[in-house]
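Exercise 7. Given the encoded structure of a 398-residue chain, write a plausible sequence.
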């Protein structure tokens, strides 16, 4: 059989969306789906948000791309807004989350090079991490499914169990550059880093002159009810990768850093042809405009609490399937009980009940709705989940 025109690296399902509106997607045949996946946490404003659509259309008619050889008033504006909003002093714009992670890795290593310690080039990473699919990003995880067949991988990464501070600190030596960590592991199972764990990493970096690199690609940009999750932990990283919700669906990412952390990132050390193009910057500004409206983040927090409470209330009615709710805000996961398998249950919800969710590690179903959901979307989601759970046949029941 001939290879497909789209390289067959995704097990694509039968859902073929052609239109979206708010929290719903519509297939080629007109079938409506409740989208509680949001493009894997990307469509933060839902589909076809009028302010985002208008900003992109206006910019597309004006100027889309010129390259980074020239001054960028559009990039300067968005960068200044992010600097004003965050711990960061400087921003590098990318096209994706993994590119933001790559820039973060380079920034951490280059810091020590500029300090006169080029041997400090190893980042301590964590089991079940997911930082993207480039060679650098898959080298920063110990997940075999990401790594198999792509060796030799890049040196300079070691791994500790997530949420095990003692194990992470035991890996610190004279070659350590810092820690690279998702404060909430998304693909790894919606596992939340404890405050003690994350605060302990910050303290270790302060004590040893190391870089704390956060990957908030999935948990950042309002998804947990604050603009970034580290705000809830009471610490700041030195470097942070963000993406997904930053463009509301337009490809965009960013690496944020303090002035000290970025001291080695001088002319010629990094670059991107498309990164920070005017069209992406227009999308990024529109997203910040909406997220900055009074009550937006409070709404995310309230909807997160309502969704969690509704899921937890549902679980006892189907305790043969569901074990617990994980996560924060509108980044939640339903851990399933064996022999129920998350990927199969996600497919059942999609194909039989037109509810879109995402599977994750540790047998978890991720629920990542647009941040603009209302209570009726939550009620529809949980009622649909419950209806599906009542009739779902597990492999052992066959």
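Solution.
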């Amino acid at each position: 059989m001939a290879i497909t025109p789209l390289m067959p690296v995704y097990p694509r399902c039968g859902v073929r969306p052609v239109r979206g509106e708010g929290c719903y997607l519509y297939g080629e045949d007109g079938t409506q789906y409740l989208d509680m996946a949001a493009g894997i946490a990307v469509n933060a404003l839902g589909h076809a948000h009028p302010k985002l659509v208008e900003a992109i259309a206006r910019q597309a008619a004006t100027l889309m791309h010129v390259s980074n050889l020239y001054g960028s008033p559009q990039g300067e504006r968005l960068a200044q807004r992010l600097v004003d909003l965050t711990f960061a002093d400087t921003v590098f714009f990318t096209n994706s989350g993994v590119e933001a992670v790559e820039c973060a890795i380079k920034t951490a290593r280059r810091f020590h090079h500029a300090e006169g310690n080029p041997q400090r080039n190893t980042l301590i990473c964590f089991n079940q991490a997911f930082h993207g699919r480039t060679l650098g990003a898959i080298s920063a995880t110990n997940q075999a499914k990401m790594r198999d067949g792509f060796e030799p991988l890049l040196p300079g990464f070691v791994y500790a169990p997530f949420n095990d501070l003692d194990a992470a600190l035991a890996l610190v030596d004279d070659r350590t550059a810092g820690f690279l960590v998702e404060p909430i592991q998304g693909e790894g199972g919606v596992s939340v880093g404890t405050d003690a764990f994350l605060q302990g990493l910050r303290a270790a970096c302060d004590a040893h002159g190391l870089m704390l690199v956060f990957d908030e690609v999935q948990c950042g940009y309002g998804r947990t009810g604050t603009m970034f999750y580290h705000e809830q932990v009471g610490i700041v990283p030195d470097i942070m990768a963000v993406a997904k919700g930053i463009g509301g669906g337009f490809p965009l990412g960013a690496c944020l850093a303090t002035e000290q952390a970025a001291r080695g990132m001088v002319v010629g050390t990094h670059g991107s042809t498309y990164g920070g193009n005017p069209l992406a910057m227009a999308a990024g500004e529109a997203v910040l405009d909406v997220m900055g409206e009074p009550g937006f983040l409070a709404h995310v927090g309230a909807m997160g609490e309502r969704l969690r409470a509704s899921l937890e209330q549902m679980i006892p009615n189907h305790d043969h399937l569901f074990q617990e709710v994980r996560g924060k805000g509108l980044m939640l996961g339903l851990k399933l009980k064996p022999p129920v398998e998350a990927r199969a249950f996600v497919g059942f919800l999609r194909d039989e009940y037109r509810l879109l969710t995402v599977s994750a590690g540790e047998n978890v179903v991720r629920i990542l709705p647009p941040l603009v959901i209302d209570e009726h979307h939550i009620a529809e989601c949980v009622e649909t989940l419950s209806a599906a759970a009542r009739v779902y046949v597990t492999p052992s029941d066959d």
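Remark. The radius of gyration is 21 Å. Students should compare their own answers with the one above.
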